[in-house]
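Re-run with default settings, no changes from the original entry. Doing this only to confirm the output is reproducible before filing.
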Amino acid sequence: MPLTKLTFRPGINRESTSYSNEGGWYDGDKIRFRFGVPEKIGGWQKASNSTYTGSARALHTFTSLAGAIYTGIGTHLKYYLLVGEQYKDITPVRKTSTTDNIFAATNGSSTITVTDNAHGAVQNDFVTFASAASLGGNITAAVLNQEYQIDAITSANVYTITAKDTSGDTVTANSSDTGNGGTSTTAAYQVNVGLDTVVYNVGWGTDTWGRDTYGSDGELGVLSTMRLWTHDNFGEDLIYNVRNGGIFYWDTSARAATFSRGIPIAELTSADGAAPTVAKQVMISDRDRHIIAFGCDAETSLGTQDPLLIRFSDQGSAITWAATATNTAGDIQLSTGSEIITAVETRQQILVFTDVSLHAMQFLGPPFTFGVSMISENITIMGPNTAKAVDDAVFWMGVEDFYVYDGRVQKLPCSVRSYVFNDFNLAQKDKTFAGLNSTFNEMWWFYPSKNSTECDKYVVYNYQEQAWTFGSLGRTAWLDRGILDNPLSTADGYAYYHELGLDDGSTSPPSAIQAHVESSQIDIADGNEFVFLNKVVPDLTFEGSTSTAPKATFTLKSRNAPGGSYLKSDAETVTQSQAESTTVVEQFTEQAFVRLRGRSFALRVASTDTETQWRLGFPRVNIRPDGRK
């Protein structure tokens, strides 16, 4: 019988059974489809061997007029600039106090008690002391005059820290430490830290006691939300915002030399005193250079957040926010939904998402500056970071569906929809984020699976080939290439350049990326007869591999009925068996001989070695009928 050519549709399909999806792919991990065939994704390498503090949720890259490249990284504890391979802490300061005699130590203890009236701090906040004097013994001025993370809040006026030397080692007070730090000690408190997770209300009023007719018709009330940042560059300067918090400004020309911290935008020199003090998101309109604050406080009621209010500065100005007849500052009030979730800029307009609707915001020019029109009231969006623009189209993940807006709102046909949303931890949905990999025409969404509190899975849509894939990979933020040569992601305190090398650079030495793709079941003569397979002619290229002997594994798996199990062989005979045949495909393998019998079979291609890149073509198998029993 002549060899049978195996051709498959691009993309993975989990919306039907493996048997009914004949001619398609059913499973995979760390693979992509390009020109209709699967290949292993590229590797990743650390951008720096240094680490940042906290869980990173936001990335933004910009350049100075001098050509320096800065990458902003917002975590739940800090805000950094990655400069070369160094992380520079530019977390804004919310309050600075100067107080006398604020320290107290106990002999034999490393705990220092700090008394500073109305400090406003919360546990884990960061504070930097200056101008303190020695307590007399081990607790020297050098020990005190540095940054500390607060251990515990005793009261509105008192908190504790753990004494450390300049290398970070714990210091214990002795009997000579009887002083109190002297006079005029300065304490600079950074903005309050946020949570790295979503925490829901507990106790009476939650679960069934706080739902439906018991006092609520929605989800459980949220007590505290995780820390998210938004940021954009205003020319060469950086504007950054804590979600539901302040807006800050980092002047590159004034602060890059020492990397001093950003300041509230309302405190800029010559500011008119009308700038928002709280917002959900900040953005720069590229076409007209307005700073736009979404979900902010009104000019007439600063400090009181309106979750549906949009305000914008005078054109080209960061300091003029008071609307007058002679400038273009102003505001817009949305009328649908309960809050603005996110806003995404395209080439022609800004799309503004509320929890139930989608609006288009366009620059009109004076006297109205901006106008807003309703696009749809029948959409959902999973979280603040789940929408991403590609030219004039915007893709986003909703609750139970994927969407695209390209002039009209459409649901994306998704062949892995049930697989993704049935394995989703909706309690932590705000951690979900979208990432564009424009080199390969891919939109990625990272999300927390059902048994995880952190993003550990991903789903990818190739918008050029309209093909879906999924897999496992833990990431917390993503930035497409552009100013940087490669996409950048974050995880576990490190930043990683993607599509760089062939291996997992999170380990030293780099480890192999475990990649595989597996087809749905293929039968002969409608599955009425058994078939016998005795040869496979692989069609695989290893172009791009750096290994001198790259290889991948071909596995043919058989079963006798659509609902039956694959017939497994003992481990010692796995390479040649009646139930499953596995062979290693070397770079120049012409054919491999197998022995496999069943009513249907599936093909699996996998690699587990370093320095290996592979791309599958159209393999062929030798199949012959083998009776009905």
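The chain has a mean pLDDT of 90. Residues 556 and 603 are 5 Å apart (CA to CA).
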